[in-house]
Design brief:
Length: 105
């Protein structure tokens, strides 16, 4: 369902060890933004009904609502002079807003 690039998996493993040992990256799609949906990322433990995926030694947690919106999505970690962070490449996004923070499915 969701895959991690090697860079994302390595950074996520470092974050989890430093911040919340035993946790994973919770990736959610929530209503909002100017295009209809936006991503919410946090570190945490799985809850009942969540999909739990292991990739590259790192854990990704996706709630039931978000699963259909994230099928085939890839999480990458990018660093640039403007900052660093996780980037989601989602084949289900048919359009996005100008700032890239929200999308339409």
């Amino acid at each position: 369902m969701v895959t991690l690039t090697p860079a994302a998996a390595e950074h996520l493993k470092e974050l989890v060890v430093a911040e919340v040992p035993g946790a994973g990256l919770r990736l959610q799609v929530i209503p909002g933004g100017c295009s209809g949906f936006e991503y919410a990322l946090s570190l945490g433990a799985p809850e009942d009904g969540d999909e739990v995926l292991e990739d590259g030694g790192a854990t990704v947690i996706v709630d039931r609502f978000s699963v259909p919106y994230l099928l085939g999505a890839q999480v990458d970690y990018e660093e640039s002079f403007q900052g660093a962070g996780f980037v989601i490449k989602n084949p289900n996004a048919t359009a996005s807003c100008g700032c890239g923070k929200s999308f339409t499915a």
